[in-house]
Write the structure tokens for this entry.
Amino acid sequence: MCERCAVEKDIYLPRLATLEKKRLMNPTEMYLRLAIDDGEPFDYIPGQFVEVSIAGIGEAPITISSSPTQKGYFELVVRRIGNVTNAIHRLRDGDKIGIRGPYGKGTYPAEQAKGRNIVFVCGGIGLVPQRSFINYILDNRADYGELTVLLGTKCMSQRFFNSELDAWSGREDMHFMETIDQADDCWLGNVGVVTTLIPKIETELTSALVFVCGPPVMYKFVLLALDEANVPRENIFLNLERKMKCGVGKCGHCQINNLYACIDGPVFRYSDLGVAPEAI
Amino acid sequence: MTGAKMTIKKINKDTFKRFVDTLVKEHKVFGPCAKGDRFEFEQLDSADQLRLDYDVTLRPPNRTYFLPPVETILTYEVGGEYKSVFDDTEFILMGIHPYDMAALNQMDRLFSQDNSDTHYMRRRQNATIVACDVVTPSRDVFAASMGTATVKTGFDALLTDIGDSYLMESGSEKGDKLLAKAKDAVDATARDLEQRKKIWVENEKRLNKHKLNCDYSYLPTLLERAYNHPVWEEKARTCFSCGSCNQVCPTCYCFNMQDDVNWGFISGKRTRCWDGCLLDGFTKVAGEHEFRKKREDRFRHRIYRKGKYVPEKIGSQIPACVGCGRCVHACLPDIANPINVYNRLIEDLGIK
């Protein structure tokens, strides 16, 4: 980029996007299908996030949940928990919202993972960012080895993507395992936290790539279980969440020791986090 | 430094005053002025206000003028387009001390690397920076320990008080233009330059009220060995989490972004304002999870950013603590002084 263009470009300026479709998936999670208005390409890699901007309220970093193999629109899933996310829930079909990004150089290693066996460990809403790469793999199924997806959900009412999960459990070319921590009588599947599924994985774990995403408290326990299963740290990737304001490596909020979740992540190789004790 | 002729002129103080008075008429000029018994950068109406003999200003000018405490980044209509807002005012920043100049040089790198920050860069391009060697050392300055008692790059012009006159060195084309306006200035002689050198050597000794017991280049290595040292908890025990050390620091540049809506609820603006990593809540996400909840974690983070993370990020030889001493003065429980922390670590861990 020439010096002049760099001066003209504003890294904080959102592009407008139209909300094409929204659907409440459970009491707190809203599915949103968005399309960028300006017609310029919107290319992203699984694992990248966008800053969603609601004029008058602010911005929130949200990882894209759809796979880039789906063209023409992208999907977000937003939990109603803060000012911006509550405002997102109040949007109506056809509304305009601001989008900056996609951001993040630490993404899912789509190329490097080719031919490898892959395991996803998802805790609740941690399924949302992982879904981008899961669907990317399913759309390029022949390029990858065995695919295992583990999902742990707190309670029945928080379960989401129900029809997609049903489709996954019916597929011959992937293993999908699910557990509910506080299950009721209607639930006939596994009960407990997501770590209880790790010993049930049929894939050879020591050579597989393992992707972990969930609430902050989950990582420590999943990493202990993966350590017990002798998964080398180089093969583990963590998708980390932090407070973010700028999304472009300036504002300092998302720093994990010397690393920035926004530009160095949000997906980190576990062996690279040895220098960052604040990560876990 | 491109295209600079590297001219060094001598202007006697009366002529300099007239020179500044001319500048003030034609340009927006900011310089150090007395504020009570302390000093602060203000817009000058006349040269009489300019106090180049100041010790240290309350706020760091490199932040105040390039990353203001509050600035409008963009405006919007609710449900409509966003429009960038840029500040394109040309101005002269007169009398910035070497340690603040060093901090500005670091900020230039931080805001231009990775994703160039247009709001910062445009302000920077519109500014002419006149640095000024320290005349009166402040109570807590330790710039010499951090390699910033003098500065050799970044400025458009550098002033040195040599008694009855100022020496004025140009460091850029903008500096050449500025020097050309000083009509009665004469070329500096070899003797003048010798005198300036003596002042520089002298300042290396005078600007060291808190002495670092190792070379500053050792700090990243020292900190690599100190992550779990008890000093973080000991110092942070009396920390108020007030963020004063962040607010006065010339190398702190963390910011927050917030939206303000006008009374009609139709249009509004997004502003950026100073933030501080010592403040409780700096890392708190929606859902109440806070990543650096403990005071000692936040205290350690600040020291690590200054001594290790930021210098490594921009490949800087000097630390991201430039030794201005403002935090030492601002900290009520008197725990902020980085030299005390570093020296304590050296005492306990030695230099390996």
